[in-house]
Amino acid sequence: MTDDLDAVLPDADSPAERPPVYATVGLVEALLDIAEDRSPSEVTIAVTTTPAGEFEPPLDLPPETPVFTDLYLPGTGGSVAAVFGMDLGTPASDGRFVSHPDGHLAVRQTDDLHEVVFVGVPPWESTDIAAFDRRGRGRDLELLDVEPPAESLPP
Fold it and tell me: In Å, how far are 23, 41, 74, 130 from 35, measured between CA atoms?
């Protein structure tokens, strides 16, 4: 039995219908650093986006284009999950990063799936990460060397 999703979920649309996934270089570096630190264990991390229109200076993308910029560290809210049986400590996310220390650069049936799934593998360089949709179909990943907008806490 195969571990890849391509074998169990049919390809419903063409690659042209799947727009590229945009992520900041800083986010990708942070994800791969965490994966390397946790290796040989796998890690799953929630990731979120910022609309392209919120960047300064403006990005050369439509303002509503999601750009992956932030992560929620794994293990946050662990005590809440232990009591209530669900992860209330991690807000809803736009995507998920999973590491495969064995070098398998594809989505597996056992991965924590999301609309966008990033898979990272050793040696944990920026070329060792790929983006997929929840069915395991590859998406073009474009890394942007930009800083996300600064967030401030409400008074």
Answer: 17, 8, 11, 14
State both tokens at 126: 């920026």
pLDDT, tens digit (0-9, with 9 covering 90-100), for 28-84: 999 999 999 999 999 999 999 999 999 999 999 999 999 999 998 866 455 555 555
Residue ranges with strand state E in the chain: 21-24, 44-51, 66-72, 95-99, 116-120, 129-133, 138-139, 141-144
Contact indicator for 118, 100 with CB cutoff of 8 Å:
no
CA distance 111 to 135: 11
Rg (CA), the chain: 16
Q: In the prediction, which pLDDT does 2 show?
A: 44
Q: Under a CB-based contact definition with an 8 Å cutoff, are residues 89 and 39 in contact? A: no
Q: What is the pTM of this model?
A: 0.80
